[in-house]
């Protein structure tokens, strides 16, 4: 199976941008050490500081699912429960 690409968009509530950013940054090092993680890169929109985007590649969907169930993701969700305006996750496959 081809690698799985993930694009995750997180929009922080305007008064919680720094909290969300801090919590997202905590995820990077531990996630990059997870089995199946090829890359896990966080971006912040230059014009809308509340918009964060993870660009990720995983060896398989099963390993992505293990990541999504990991304790550090649960802790992130708890820490940012009322701080995130919206969250979308797209599972994609490179075709060219």
What does this structure look like?
- This protein has a single domain, classed as 2-Layer Sandwich (Alpha-Beta Plaits), CATH 3.30.70.
- The two termini are 15 Å apart.
- Strands 2-3-1-4 form a four-stranded antiparallel β-sheet.
- It has helices at residues 17-32, 61-68, 71-79; strands at residues 4-12, 37-44, 51-58, 84-92.
- The chain is of the alpha+beta class and 96 residues long.
- The radius of gyration is 13 Å and the shape is globular.
- It has three helices and four strands; from the N terminus they run βαββααβ.
- Pfam families: ABM.
- Its EC number is 1.-.-.-.
- This is Monooxygenase.
- One of its GO terms (molecular function) is monooxygenase activity.
- Keywords: Monooxygenase, Oxidoreductase.
Q: Given the structure, what is the number of helices?
A: 3
Q: How are helices and strands ordered from N to C?
A: EHEEHHE
Summing up helix and strand content along with how strands pair, one would put the structural category as alpha+beta
Q: Determine Rg (CA atoms, Å).
A: 13 Å
Helix content: 25-40%
The percentage of residues in β strands lies in: 35-45%
Average pLDDT reading: 96
**Which architecture does the CATH hierarchy give at level 2?**
2-Layer Sandwich
Largest sheet: 4 strands, antiparallel
Please provide the count of β strands: 4
Number of domains: 1
**Unreliable residue stretches:** none
Give the overall silhouette: globular
Terminal Cα separation, in Å?
15 Å
Strand order across the biggest sheet? 2-3-1-4
CATH topology: Alpha-Beta Plaits
Using the coordinates above, name the CATH class.
Alpha Beta
Pfam families: ABM (PF03992)
EC number: 1.-.-.-
Protein name: Monooxygenase
Organism: Vibrio thalassae
């Amino acid at each position: 199976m081809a690698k799985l690409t993930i694009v995750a968009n997180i929009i922080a509530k305007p008064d919680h941008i720094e909290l969300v950013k801090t919590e997202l940054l905590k995820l990077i090092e531990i996630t990059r050490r997870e089995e199946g993680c090829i890359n896990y890169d966080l971006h912040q929109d230059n014009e809308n500081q509340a918009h964060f985007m993870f660009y990720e590649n995983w060896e398989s969907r099963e390993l992505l699912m293990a990541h999504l169930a990991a304790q550090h993701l649960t802790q992130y969700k708890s820490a940012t429960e009322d701080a995130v305006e919206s969250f979308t996750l797209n599972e994609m496959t490179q075709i060219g």
